[in-house]
Design brief:
The chain is mainly alpha-helical. The chain has two domains: 288 residues, Hypothetical protein af1432 (Orthogonal Bundle); 78 residues, no CATH class. The protein is built from 18 helices and two strands. The protein has a two-stranded antiparallel sheet. The radius of gyration is 21 Å and the shape is globular. The termini are far apart.
Length: 384
């Protein structure tokens, strides 16, 4: 079959898909990249982005990173890790997007890439790495900024993935930790807005940054939907709490299991966002969700058993950071930071980021298990 025949077939298929999208969906033909590329015959621009993320090294490392419970320190490896969380976000967000007639290819690309910047040991690792970064004058560490940094400057040996602005914006604009009843996209955003946001966050400013598309808003609101009930199920599985300890008002309204909670929240988003210029929960659902978030924070995220399993990160990461930084300054080519990271980077990366930034990126890309092996090698050599 000739290329022109293939092109006609795929154009027809693409047109049929685009015709199913609502008037508020963002169409792939309107997307743009910082470096222009020839269009792909078979795939839309967002499908190209999805595949670039899916086949990246950073995506493969998802499976070895903590969500809440560090599985390297627990017998039960069925606990949710970062890879499962990403799958849940993608599936739920695409379900919402389908009913709202939004672009599910854009949603999927954002969902798959939104947590690439998470470092080992989840938010405990993020907080500790941030302290190290501030110490060396490179600004606070935030995983959403690192996620964008990975797709822009670390992937493909430092050349980056050259993703569309809309996917990149959705990645950096996600923030499941902040509670929002309603998300209104900031449709006039520019690259300058993204760079100003990065500078502000690294400087410690607490600012809101809404996605540029409704699709980005769907992923952002879904991040919470995906983790809120699953974290409860994992906590019950690990005997941190019992199901009968869940707050009765939230159980009565949202549900008693992860599947019930997800269904309630999805329905609320679809009903309240259909044919609207925003993505939102209804007020009552939002209030119960916020109450459940507070319950999770008190009973799960700050639980002594959870913190105990991750306490090693607070003691060891500053030491490892200093070791790697010294290795770069001394040009110690036997160091893992050279063998497993810097030796595989092009000048586009090496010439544009300081030694401290390179150490930050090396640690951020580690899995929990790799980090633990480094601790054994450097700090407990007799156990290595």
């Amino acid at each position: 079959m000739r290329n022109d025949e293939l092109t006609n077939i795929f154009n027809e298929i693409r047109a049929a898909y685009e015709s199913t999208l609502g008037k508020r969906a963002f169409h792939s033909v309107n997307a743009w990249r910082s470096k222009k590329e020839e269009p792909d015959i078979m795939r839309s621009q967002f499908a190209v982005d999805r595949d670039r993320i899916l086949y990246s090294g950073a995506y493969r490392r998802y499976h070895g990173k903590t969500q809440v419970f560090s599985f390297t320190n627990m017998i039960d490896e069925e606990m949710t890790n970062r890879n499962l969380h990403i799958a849940y976000v993608s599936q739920i967000a695409r379900t919402i997007g389908k009913y709202l007639k939004l672009n599910t290819e854009l949603i999927e690309a954002i969902a798959l890439g939104h947590d690439l910047g998470h470092c080992p040991f989840g938010h405990d690792g993020e907080n500790t790495l941030s302290l190290c970064c501030v110490k060396y004058g490179i600004g606070e560490f935030h995983h959403n900024i690192e996620s964008l940094h990975i797709v822009d400057h670390i992937s493909r040996k430092g050349k980056g993935l050259n993703l569309t602005f809309q996917v990149r914006d959705g990645i950096i604009s996600h923030d499941g930790e902040v509670h929002n009843t309603q998300l209104i996209p900031q449709t006039n955003k520019t690259e300058e807005d993204i760079q100003n946001y990065i500078l502000a966050k690294k400087a410690g400013r607490d600012i809101q940054f809404m996605p540029a598309t409704l699709e980005g808003c769907v992923v952002r609101i879904t991040d919470t939907i995906a983790y809120i009930g699953q974290d409860i199920e994992d906590a019950i599985r690990f005997n941190i709490l019992n199901r009968d300890e869940l707050p009765p008002e939230q159980v009565a309204y949202l549900g008693n299991t992860n599947s019930q909670i997800i269904e309630t929240l999805i329905k609320s988003v679809i009903v309240n966002s259909y044919d609207q210029d925003f993505i939102a929960f209804d007020k009552e659902t939002s209030e119960h969700l916020l109450a459940l978030k507070k319950f999770n924070y008190k009973r799960i995220y700050t639980d002594d058993n959870v913190k105990k399993s991750n306490s090693i990160i607070y003691r060891t990461m500053p030491i490892l950071f200093d070791i790697y930084l010294n290795d770069i300054q001394e040009n110690n080519r036997e160091s893992k930071i050279f063998k497993h990271f810097l030796n595989h980077k092009f000048p586009e990366y090496l010439d544009n980021f300081s030694p401290a930034e390179q150490v930050r990126d090396f640690i951020a890309t580690m899995t929990d298990r790799y980090y633990n092996e480094e601790i054994k090698a450097y700090l407990l050599p007799w156990r290595g």
